[in-house]
Amino acid sequence: MRTMREDPEPVAVLFGAADSPYLRIDPYFMRCVDNDSEAEQALKELVTELERVQQDVVADAGTLLVVDNYLAVHGRRAFTARYDGTDRWLQKSVITRDLRRSRAARDSAAGRIVV
Prior knowledge:
Low-confidence stretches: none
Strand content: under 5%
Keywords: Oxidoreductase
Largest sheet: 2 strands, antiparallel
Organism: Streptomyces boluensis
GO molecular function, one term: oxidoreductase activity
Radius of gyration: 18 Å
Mean pLDDT: 86
Protein name: TauD/TfdA-like domain-containing protein
Helix content: 10-25%
Strand order of the largest sheet: 1-2
Number of strands: 2
Number of domains: 1
Number of helices: 2
Shape: globular
Structural class: mainly alpha
């Protein structure tokens, strides 16, 4: 986490097809290349607009929320943990379009668990 915060790997905010790009953004772990005021302003405006249109989703016990990372940006608000069993609890599942890309991390070609 420290490396991500203090020395993040350069990544493009927009990627994919130029006429219909995808968005990759995590402002806490992103910064613009040195001395690029246009990029800094563009990133600032993008973050401001995302904050303006963000919507909270409250997921009660037993609720499943599925987010397609290619269609939506998402995150979680900061919170102070109470460690009393009432804090938020998140279970993560990853769904892929191409199992071949994860083959090296699975026990067999037919396996579905990535370790």
